[in-house]
Amino acid sequence: MHVCMIVPNEAVKGGIASVVNGYRGSALEKRYRITYIESYQNGSKWDKLKKALEGYLAFRRLLRRDRPDLVHVHSSFGPSFYRKMPFILWSASRGIPVVNHIHGAEFDTFYDKASDAKKKRVQKVYGRCTRLIALSEEWAARLQQIVPRERIDILENYCRMPKEPYDAERNPGQVLFLGELGERKGCFDIPAVWEQVRKNHPGASLVMAGDGEMEQIKTAFSRKRLLDTVTFPGWVRGEEKERLLRESSIFLFPSYHEGMPMAVLEAMGYGLGIVTTTVGGIPQLIDHKRSGFLETPGDVTAMAKDVSALIQDEALRRNMGELARRSVEQKYSLEIHLQKLEETYRKACMTK
Questions:
Q1: How confident is the model at residue 49 (pLDDT cuts 50, 70, 90)?
Q2: Is the predicted pLDDT of residue 6 greater than 90, yes or no?
Q3: Please, what is the angle between helix 262-269 and helix 238-247, to 10°?
Q4: In angstroms, rounded to a whole number, what is the distance separating the alpha carbons of residues 52 and 71?
Q5: CA 321 → CA 123, 163, 256, 308, 327, distances in Å?
């Protein structure tokens, strides 16, 4: 079967690119003939526009010369919705099944609080999709406002696990954040969390790995006279990300809005002690006080207590990390993910 997958450029930062990059070279390519068409790249607005136009042209050529049996669109909310709209409508108008894999995290802004005109547009576009993929039960319930539940499949993100789950050389006082540096990920709460942690553990260190509103966040740490306890390596991937996951002991992720964050899955796969929040699909991943800590977004005191507990108690840290890793191994491997994705493909083609 020929599958056309609408994807971001491999170098793009974020969860969608991480998910798609794992498909490249995987067993999925052995079982399906996949054509990747890129519709987004990093850069200026003109760079992004140019990439989108190139993607539309490449897709139109594909429809004429090598018509796919199925189109798999990776989309989010905001501008991503509008970029992917032509791919969906062109495919549906030709009777090609469309699987819309939705990675968005702020449904309130995208749909609940949208104008009636925008809601109708979303309903039209999603209605032309054969199947929708949600990242968790919570997101399936939200998308059910737009399309019938029987057309929505749940496909959790996955984690590629390291062979060695726990490194004895970990720094017990090193706390790691991975992701976009901004308000949505709770990064402006971290200085307040860190202030309380450092009072109890003055030797602790924090790594804020990512990019975004870096200067504003540095200013927030400076106001608390904590900037010299924090390092900002920028966006990391590959060996540098692996090194940080291996040498850190605790993962702090105080997000306000999520689908199913790859960063949390990676931290689980590396056996870190995790402190995160009860948003999106995260409660599906973490068993509170067993495989990590789940707190209400914005509760900096609770998160500071959790981080401090993990720093001072190696057994707690190790036990939580090992349980988190086992959970990933049993439920969120790439192999399990691909099996579920193929089932969605089969359902989409059956309704053709």
A1: very high
A2: yes
A3: 60
A4: 17
A5: 42, 14, 23, 16, 10
- The pLDDT tens digits of the residues spanning 156-168 come to 999 888 877 666 6
Q: How many CB atoms lie within 10 A of CB 41?
A: 17
Residue with tokens 């450029």: 9
Contact between 147 and 129 (Cβ < 8 Å): yes
Give the span between the Cα atoms of 116 and 102, in whole angstroms. 21
Burial 117-155 (b: 16+ CB within 10 A, else e): eebeebeebbebbbbbbbbbebbbebbeebbeeebbbbb
282: how many CB neighbours lie within 10 A of its CB?
23
Q: For the residues 140-152, what does the mean pLDDT come to?
A: 93
- Does residue 109 sit in helix, strand or coil? helix
What share of the chain in percent tops pLDDT 90?
Answer: 80
Nearest to 327 by CA among 295, 284, 293: 284
Residue that is written with structure tokens 């749940």 in the block: 154
State the Cα angle at 2 between 36 and 57, rounded to 5°: 45
**Residue 206 contacts residue 229 (beta carbons within 8 Å):** yes
Amino acid at position 145, single letter:
Q
The amino acid present at 340, given as its one-letter code, is: K
Beta-sheet strands, E only, within the chain: 2-8, 33-40, 70-75, 98-102, 131-134, 152-154, 174-178, 205-209, 230-231, 250-253, 273-277, 293-295
Question: Residue 229 carries which DSSP code?
Answer: G
Strand, helix or coil at 292? Answer: strand
User: Tens of pLDDT along 61-96?
Assistant: 999 999 999 999 999 888 899 999 999 999 999 999
CA-only gyration radius of the chain, Å: 21
Contact 213, 187 (CB under 8 A): yes
Contacts of 258 (CB under 8 A, 6+ apart): 105, 279, 280, 281, 282
Mean pLDDT of 240-244: 93
